[in-house]
Amino acid sequence: MGAQQKTQRVLGNGGRGVAPGAVDRGAEPVAANPESESPSACDRLMEEVCERENLKRALKRVKSNKGAPGVDGMTVHALPAYLREHWPSIRASLLEGTYKPQPVRRVEIPKPDGAGVRKLGIPSALDRFIQQAVLQVLQKQWDPTFSDSSYGFRPGRSAHQAVAQAQNYIQAGYRWVVDLDLEKFFDRVSHDILMSRVARRVSDKRMLKLIRSFLTAGVMEHGLVGATDEGAPQGGPLSPLLSNLMLDELDRELERRGLRFVRYADDSNVYVRSERAGQRVMAGLKTYLTGKLKLKVNEAKSAVARPHTRKFLGFTFSDRVQVKRRIAPKALTRFKDRIRELTQRTRGISVDQLIGTLKRYLTGWRGYFGFCETPSVLRQLDEWIRRRLRCFFWKQWKSGRTRFQELIARGVNRNLAAQTAGSPHNAWRLSCSPALSKALPNRYFRSLGLPSVGSS
């Protein structure tokens, strides 16, 4: 019997004894009243978590997501073998309400805008698996009740949809934005407030205890475990769903006030017709967030402004009659910085390795930012990337003799090749010279497999 079959056989034991139709009875109606919490009447959620099919899907997702090991050092590749040996006791502890997660491992990564670091909490592979299994059960019930204006970490919803909706509001005449940034949201979520919201929807006391135990498991940093009395560590599968639950109350308040808004995780934009209305909304929301949810607005990053002066999910918008999606200036700066880093000659890599790395990065970047409506900007980026590559080749050829020979071999006449190889100008200036343009034309880079960001 194969390893996967053995794992499925062990996990399959978890589904025995589950009442038929438990999923249906626990699910909240899709057409739920948005003002109500639609609490679940099901107190057998843990049995649903331990169902065979749910566990198989959770294991598959955790393995596909890969991710770094937690405090115990176990990789996701080692998880199936561990489950084959220990799943019966793990399942028993879940059903008895005694399962204790391990502390998360603290990892700090630079923020995209360069302003400090973002603190992640990496759970162990086992805890990620269990969180994923819990997520699949709870998300199925909770997600249909969330606001239509919430787009982050939800099935069938995306950042592109959020940006497009923001564009629609601006086009419709709501040309002022209340740009709300919550200060260290994931670090400062009140456990008591969050758990009170969970308890409105979950009656299974084992599930409530398990979720709180994930919140309070502690953080290992520099070899020491510290307590966590607030916050929902970023890094685990369950945190995004819990953040959406916490901020669903903000969504309902905005809807109650009749406001047009778009929220993606903790990034909220409210669109209004005038600056005065925006200032009034900002003041009211600060009071609401502080008093009701114990959350603080980041004064430095929040503002009432024209949308073209602000960025939203990496995009901004043109200030014209016909509103167009544009790539935010900071996103363009980050892109160029990354390309410069990848095309440094001092990295000591081959052309094939360079093109392979660029291909992966450019394909992913184009998949997201290709959503902009400024094709001329993308064409300019393509030209700039090719200039960077011509610089890379020119520097790699090093000596004047090698440069001359390479130019001749690539079809440049001897006089032009000699003139260019002996030029005192720097590589960047020469990168758009006639000789290098002929020796390294656009079609040459296409033949290497370099993708264009300006076309699919």
TrEMBL record:
Residues 1-41 are annotated as: Disordered. InterPro entries: DNA/RNA_pol_sf (IPR043502), Group_II_RT_mat (IPR030931), GrpII_Intron_Splice-Mob/Def (IPR051083), Mat_intron_G2 (IPR013597), RT_dom (IPR000477). Residues 90-317 form the Reverse transcriptase domain. It holds the Pfam family GIIM. Keywords: Nucleotidyltransferase, RNA-directed DNA polymerase, Transferase. Residues 1-10 have a biased composition (Polar residues). PROSITE patterns: RT_POL (PS50878). One of its GO terms (molecular function) is RNA-directed DNA polymerase activity. Belongs to the bacterial reverse transcriptase family. This is RNA-directed DNA polymerase (Reverse transcriptase). It comes from Caballeronia udeis.
